[in-house]
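Troubleshooting: if your tokenizer reports a length mismatch, compare your output against this known-good record of 528 residues.
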Amino acid sequence: MRRSAIWRGLAVGTALWAMAAHAEAAAPPQPQAATERPALPLRVDGKPWLILGLQVNNSSGVPAALRDLAGAIARSGANTIMTPVSWEEIEPVSGRFDFSLVDGLVEEARRQNVHLVLLWFGTWKNGGMSYTPEFVKRDTEHYPRVIDPAGRPIDVLSPIGALSQARDAQAFAALMAHLKAIDAKTRTVLMVQVENEAGTLGADRDHAPAANALYNAAVPADMPRIEGTGQGNWPQTFGPRAPEAFMAYHTAHYIQAVAAAGKAAYDLPLYINVWPREQPGLLRPGLSSPSGGAVSWLLPMWKALAPAIDVIGPDNYDTNVAPYLEIANAYDRPDNPLLIPETGGSIAHARHMFLALARPRAMGVSKFGLDADFALKSDPVAVNYRLLREAAPFLLPLRDAGKVQAAVEEDGLANVPLSFSAFDAVARFGEVRNVYGGDRGQGNPGLGGRVLMAEVAPDRFLIVGADANVAFAPKLGVDGAAQLLTVEQGHFEQGRWVRERLLNGDETYFGLRLPAEGASLMVSLMVR
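Known-good structure output:
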């Protein structure tokens, strides 16, 4: 442990803010998160950046573990690693901060040539307080717990606890100040997540006497109302949704204080991740998702109450396309570009990534969980990342101009039409047979088909994907047929297309085929 990484006896006040003020005067602008169209949500070194992320396991956020994962990271094609930094790690003793772990993570990421997103596990981790320091856990008087309806304390800090909020904000600001001191020039760390799936799991709201008094008092004036709500206290205003709305108000204020303290120290983009509500089963706050989190119906309130948070992103693990898209639609707003901080690694998740990333201004996705053997064999997420990592600077401006479409295979859906300015296309999945209605895909056994298609010019297209077969036709009503002029298979190097070979003959006569291991094609065509 390096002594230079340890702050001993740090008190709230001048020492912290002196550190926050320390920065290289000539440091370049930081990555910027945009909240209004048409600006790109995230740029690095002046270029658009698409987060193709891997989140390490909860207990792997240490330099040695990141080093052991270097082979998996290199094979994955990921450009961003998400790793936790917990309150209990950096402040094991009250007032004593140790950033040696943070220093090691940043150094290891630089060695592997990847960027980091740090995940602040402070007051909340999955609706609980498991990553708070021991001095917080032991002191239930000064750091009060949420009380459940039966009068029992649960393992969640109350969002109305003033000292809990102040100490979390102090620790987070110290972390951000340290990041500024070590990383403002290099900018290895792109963003920071504030807490993890914040809210209360185990109770609908805090039922402590102090919380009850607030709950039965008038709703504060800064709490946004929704259409059709009443006036008065929380139950009178929000009816059966009052417990969740009450917790959202206090949780959002708490996180706003933490995030604002961090931004005052170092103005990096900040986001929160959300345990979403749109899932099968009984939807009960505190049971099916943490009560007070930024679930979709509370998203406008969170945006108003926590302006220091740049982006609110849903953790989207659903393998069914309907709820997956419902979640994505809810969080893709003009003031909130789509970011999926956590998703799974199945073939369904890999397909749905294309649906998410094709949306204008989408910031990216991140697969949760990373082991040393990841991508030793063909992996669908790694296929996506290897296809998109170097293509992103070329692809994103086209996408944000509305020139990119996605087609993905689903059970019973093996032929997906696409329409562009001068041509129509179809993505066919599985064996293509001539049946009633023409040549149709019969579906892949593993349902792995996925395509991103970009209109580079009216007669030129970039096709990226796997397990698919693409065919073109002129627009309806235009005489003639689509004739392929050139079909190049290749790859991108820092956003520049590099041709590997020309395809012709059998490789194009039966459609433009994208193998299971993925491929990128640049296609020029005309109407003959």
